[in-house]
């Protein structure tokens, strides 16, 4: 009798939402937008747009997880759910590291811009502090890359013959991994090496149309700041000071937009993880 009951439960657990279900269709639509961003050769496709697509993806995933059929199906996939919860936690940690680094960069820029406006004699010390801060950020972004690399191994280890639910979460993890890898490289001011993420980055600061490479933006701000190193705010060339102000101001506007999107994305990721936890406790 017990085996019959277990067997019938297993059969119910494989009743996934059909591919035409609106919630699943929305998830796949959001995945398509993320992949379309990756394929876009123009640097006009801003990172903030990519984060907006990823935020919408997690919101749609959370709605997908609310479906009774999805919850019933995942009750028969305890190992997948536990792996997803672990991966989501790593990705949330990566999101937090990126968000904190962006905030620190903006704070450092604000301090330097204030020194330049006031003609502060402590400019040299401020630049040294910024340099130390940038080194710490690069270490933090190395940690971020290690976190997403551990998630990437889970996503890439999945086979080719996956059911609908498995494939959805494989694609969601892959999209998140590539996004945070790109952000880590952006903050570090480095080019991508030959890896699965290298297709996301242009090898040039300017392409044929004059679009800006996102990694080049933070590099240019760093160069403009470090060009004034060894000079006081009074002896720094007016042109150099103006350029540094201009680069920092332009970059900080984009960093502020990115930070807002990251906060929204983190909330959506937390909601999805809570939904997975509720499924585990409800099984």
Question: Mind explaining what this structure looks like?
Answer:
By secondary structure, this protein is mainly α. The chain has one domain (21-282). The protein is 76% helix and 0% strand. It has 9 helices and no strands. It has helices spanning 2-13, 22-39, 47-65, 68-75, 78-118, 123-157, 164-188, 214-226, 238-282. The longest helix is centred in the C-terminal third of the chain and has 45 residues, at 238-282. Keywords: Coiled coil. This is DUF241 domain-containing protein. It comes from Nymphaea colorata.
Strand and helix map with partners:
Elements: H1 2-13, H2 22-39, H3 47-65, H4 68-75, H5 78-118, H6 123-157, H7 164-188, H8 214-226, H9 238-282
Nearest-integer average pLDDT = 80
For the termini, the CA-CA separation is: 20 Å
Major sheet characteristics: none
Q: Can you count the beta strands?
A: 0
Poorly predicted runs of 5 or more residues: 1-13, 192-213
Structural class per helix/strand content? mainly alpha
Count of DSSP helices? 9
Shape: elongated
Oligomeric form of this entry? single chain
């Amino acid at each position: 009798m017990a085996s019959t009951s277990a067997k019938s439960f297993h059969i119910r657990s494989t009743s996934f939402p059909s591919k035409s279900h609106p919630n699943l269709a929305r998830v796949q639509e959001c995945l398509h937008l993320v992949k379309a961003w990756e394929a876009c050769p123009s640097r006009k496709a801003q990172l903030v747009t990519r984060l907006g697509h990823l935020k919408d993806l997690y919101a749609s995933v959370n709605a997908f997880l609310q479906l009774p059929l999805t919850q019933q199906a995942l009750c028969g996939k305890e190992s997948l759910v536990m792996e997803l919860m672990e991966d989501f936690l790593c990705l949330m940690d990566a999101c937090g590291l990126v968000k904190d680094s962006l905030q620190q960069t903006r704070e450092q820029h604000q301090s330097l811009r204030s020194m330049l406006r006031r003609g502060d004699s402590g400019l040299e010390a401020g630049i040294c502090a910024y340099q130390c801060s940038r080194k710490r950020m690069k270490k933090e972004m190395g940690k971020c890359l290690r976190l997403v690399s551990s998630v990437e191994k889970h996503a890439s280890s999945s086979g080719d013959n996956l059911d609908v639910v498995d494939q959805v979460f494989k694609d969601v993890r892959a999209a998140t991994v590539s996004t945070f890898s790109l952000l880590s490289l952006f903050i570090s001011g480095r080019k991508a090496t030959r890896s699965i993420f290298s297709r996301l980055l242009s090898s040039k600061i300017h392409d044929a149309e004059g679009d800006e490479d996102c990694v080049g933006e933070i590099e240019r701000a760093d160069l403009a700041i470090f060009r004034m190193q060894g000079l006081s705010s009074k002896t720094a060339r007016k042109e150099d000071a103006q350029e540094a102000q201009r680069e920092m101001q332009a970059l900080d506007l984009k960093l502020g937009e990115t930070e807002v999107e990251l906060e929204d994305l983190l909330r959506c990721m937390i909601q999805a993880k809570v939904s997975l936890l509720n499924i585990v406790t409800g099984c």
